[in-house]
Amino acid sequence: MSVQAKICGISTGAALDAALAGGARFIGLVFYAKSPRYVDLATAKGLADRARGHAKIVALVVDADDAALREINDAIAPDMFQLHGKETPQRVAEVAQLTGRPIIKAIPVESEDDTVRAETYGTVAHLILFDAKPPTRPDALPGGNGLVFDWSLIASVSDRVPYMLSGGLTPGNVAEAIRQTATKMVEVSSGVESAPGVKDPDLIRRFLDAVKTAKQT
């Protein structure tokens, strides 16, 4: 089975074109104002309209309230929402009901206890996104920090929850990540950027090429 890839933090037409040309199955639009990858609704709608039918559109939010979720849902009509904050299983279920969309729930990983916690979302989230736990500094983002976690930590749950692997993936290490984990889905954001928030079309192409040729164990 081929590995599916998500390019997150798309904010320009050039980045979108590279993602679609390379065969990305998901593109992520970030609705978190503190992120360098943030897009406003008008920009996001233009990108979503171009991507629709070619890749699944994922709206990434961080502890968003109901009003913000409704606004994004109505304006963008994403295929999925990605919750990258401290949302509880109850909140994930509420968002799924409110939006009528499948949910990707990000789980920050530092220890095996973190990966085990993913099972508590098993009945409310369509997918788990395993990402590296962010730094403790006040200005750290919930994700997109370019940090890699110990991939072996997900071994105990990888066959019990559908998941996507993220966290510091790059064109240089994604094949090894796939080989070690046998993941069926990967996500990248900062690993295909020339500067924070600036997607590099060539790095996107190289990442997607590496995914296509990677061998699973």
Keyword list:
alpha/beta; 10 strands; two-stranded antiparallel ribbon; single chain; 7 helices; 217 residues
Describe this structure in words.
- The protein is an alpha/beta fold and 217 residues long.
- The chain has a single domain (4-213), classed as Aldolase class I (TIM Barrel), CATH 3.20.20.
- The protein contains seven helices and ten strands.
- Strand 3, helix 3 (66-76) and strand 4 (80-83) form a beta-alpha-beta unit.
- Helix 1 packs parallel to helix 7 (201-213).
- The longest helix has 13 residues, at 201-213.
- It is globular and about 40 Å long.
Average pLDDT figure: 93
User: Major β-sheet, in short?
Assistant: 8 strands, parallel
Give me the strand/helix succession: EHEHEHEHEHEEHEEEH
Number of helices: 7
Structural class: alpha/beta
Computed CA radius of gyration, to the nearest angstrom: 16 Å
* Unreliable sequence segments: none
CATH superfamily: Aldolase class I
Work out the number of β strands: 10
| First and last CA, distance | 12 Å
Identify the strand order in the major beta sheet.
Answer: 7-6-5-4-3-2-1-8
Give the helix proportion (percent range). 25-40%
C-alpha geometry: globular
The proportion of strand residues reads 15-25%
Summed up, the domain count is 1
Assigned CATH architecture? Alpha-Beta Barrel
What name does the CATH topology carry?
TIM Barrel
The CATH class designation is Alpha Beta
How is the quaternary structure best described? single chain
Task: Spell out the blueprint of helices and strands.
Layout: E1 4-7, H1 13-21, E2 26-30, H2 41-51, E3 56-61, H3 66-76, E4 80-83, H4 89-99, E5 103-109, H5 112-117, E6 127-132, E7 163-165, H6 174-181, E8 185-188, E9 193-195, E10 198-199, H7 201-213
Parallel strand pairs: 1-2, 1-8, 2-3, 3-4, 4-5, 5-6, 6-7
Antiparallel strand pairs: 9-10
